[in-house]
Design brief:
With about 150 residues, the chain is α+β, with helices and mostly antiparallel strands. It has one helix and six strands, in the order αββββββ.
């Protein structure tokens, strides 16, 4: 009998057969571990029903839609209401698609990334408009970052 020629065209077949043999031996070598049986326990039902949840009262009467669109104002409130222009510091704060915090001029120019080492949400200017606060998470931990 001649020794196996590793350069023969049967080499891939020999490797596949050897691999299957190893897989079969390894899978059959250890006995299966029995699963732990968990016995269900019975808990008595509560004597009193849970407290009913109270829904918050509506805060305003919804307005009927108009034929012509109207501009929202700070007095009208609601979604789309405009903030007092004296509280805007001249730059917008934003979160990009990677969760990084940045500022930009209202016209879209002068974009500046402030925090790129974590994932941030809900940025807001401080009342004095010289700081930005945001909820975030970094490798150091999570919290409110100023």
């Amino acid at each position: 009998m001649q020794p196996f020629n590793w350069r023969s065209p049967l080499r891939p077949l020999a490797l596949v057969l050897f691999s299957l043999f190893v897989i079969i031996v390894v899978s059959c070598s250890s006995p299966p571990t029995p699963e732990e049986t968990v016995v269900p326990t019975e808990e008595p039902a509560a004597d009193t029903p849970p407290a009913a949840e109270t829904l918050p009262a509506p805060t305003s009467v919804p307005e009927e839609p108009t034929a012509e669109p109207t501009e929202a104002t700070a007095e009208s409130g609601g979604f789309g209401a405009q903030a007092d222009s004296s509280s805007i510091p001249g730059r917008l704060v934003f979160i990009n698609s990677q969760g990084q915090l940045g500022t930009v001029d209202p016209d879209g120019r002068n974009q500046r990334m402030l925090a790129t080492n974590g994932i941030y949400q809900f940025p807001a200017w401080s009342p004095t408009t010289n700081q930005i606060a945001a909820i975030g998470s970094t490798v150091a931990g999570a919290g409110v970052f100023v």
